[in-house]
Amino acid sequence: MEFLITPLKYEFVVNGMIVAMMIGILCGIIGIYVVLRGMSYIGHGLSHAAFGGAVIGYIFSINLYIAAGVWGLLSAFLINLIVREKKIKADAAIGIVTTASFALGIALISRIRRFTKNLEAILFGNILGVTTEDIIIIGIVTLLVIIIIFFLYKQLLFVTFDPESANVYGTRASLIDAIFSFILAASIIVSLQVIGVTLIAAAIIIPASTARLLTNNFNKMFFLSIAIGAITSVAGIYASFYLNAASGATIVLLGALIFSIVLIYNYIHRKIMLHEHAHSHLHGAIPHHHTHLDDAEHSHEHKEKV
Amino acid sequence: MIEIKNLTCNYGNNIVFNGINLSIKKGSLAGIVGPSGSGKTTLIKAILGVVRPIAGEVYVNGKIIKNNPPPDIGYIPQLETIEWNFPVTVEQVVMMGRYNKMGRLPWAGKEDRKKVQEALDRLGILEYTNHHINTLSGGEQQRVFLARALVSEPELLILDEPTSSVDLKTQHDILHFLLTLNKKGITIILITHDLNAVAAHLPWIICFNRGIIAEGMPEDVFNPEILKKTYNADVAVIRKGHLILMANATPFND
Question: Which of A104, A154, A205, B251 has its CA 20 to 30 A from that of A53?
Fold first, then answer.
């Protein structure tokens, strides 16, 4: 128990723990939709785009969240403009705009040579350096996201699974998409200073991907992703305390470790299933011999007569 | 039930069809047939309100369809458009058809669960309630989407190729089930490539190729002239009693 209590004697660790848990829950929720929509590159791109805004905000003494938010919106507008040209696809447009924005941030830093701890935190994260203001802002966004997801849970599921039918059955897919883009951008921007531009995409994707490996049921995946996000964040803070390693990186590494363990477990489980079913067996009175490559093949029918 | 007036739709810079007029009465069971790329799907999407026409109007039950889909509609998309690895169970997919009738809370009420169970039972897939959608056969997957449409309690049911990628028996079962629904008063429109199956099961056919080539009962529209105009290919039509059979009659040249 002493092992668990010792880090909590320090206020900055307790603050870090609270923020890490909120970010874990936030990334766990957002990640589900990002992973299932195949939008992983957007999390990566948005955080890089926001970095350019954060640096400009720093130079002109504008609030970081406002500067990064406005810059993120501008980037999204530019991406839309490029995609409208039809010759360039969305992934290429995102690659160009967001990397250019990130490069602008780096170029400005190198030019003004005032690379402070603040900007370093945005690049690599600094959970243990969070202020009360950060805790309040992250708390408000987390609460807001939970409320929005609670009331749009059904609609988001329908639009993510089958957007065209969702429209036909009365769910306005474009409105749901716009709301989701807004909460995704808000989540990334508030997480920037805590997790860092370079690590945020992984923090969003890993809990949801791990949950996906564990279940085929959306509701279960939803709660598993949140639980994995929150637990790895808190455990990551403990690990970073004892290992004296960067907290953001430790959280992401712990998440990746759990993902790898689940992946290996799934692989071994599938091998065992394959071995068990590779023998001759009976379906009713019908003798049968074959191998099953995955669980999906267990649904086949055996109607032939012996 | 459906009135289409001077409807023109485009796809990018290309006009898919121009100035179509069509009327489908309440209680109809109509099949739209035509070659790939002929605009069949665009036509039903215009009825569904998900494709915006560049000219003309679509009316469903007297109300003009613009951006919003008509109410009380059931839709079954092409199964090829579904992401089968998506983590949803059969029950979760069918429940989606009830979403617009449910309250704001994320969970389903007793009545919604009952409706879903009844639909699954009616379609013979109740035992798969908690199965992942990818573990079902093609015919069972088609029934899941039929069940989703049924729980929305539709007046109008639109199906995009419900008989593709299923075996003959399942094809027969699906079309018979649609006939049963139609007898209960549901208007049904479906797109299909299976000419022989629709000739045997459907009372009304619309031959379509960037416009309406012909419409009428199978025995009236399934003849070599109309089918040549529809498919730009020679189609042999064999009649034996009530049976109409069609096959590609274009000679094969090296």
Answer: A205
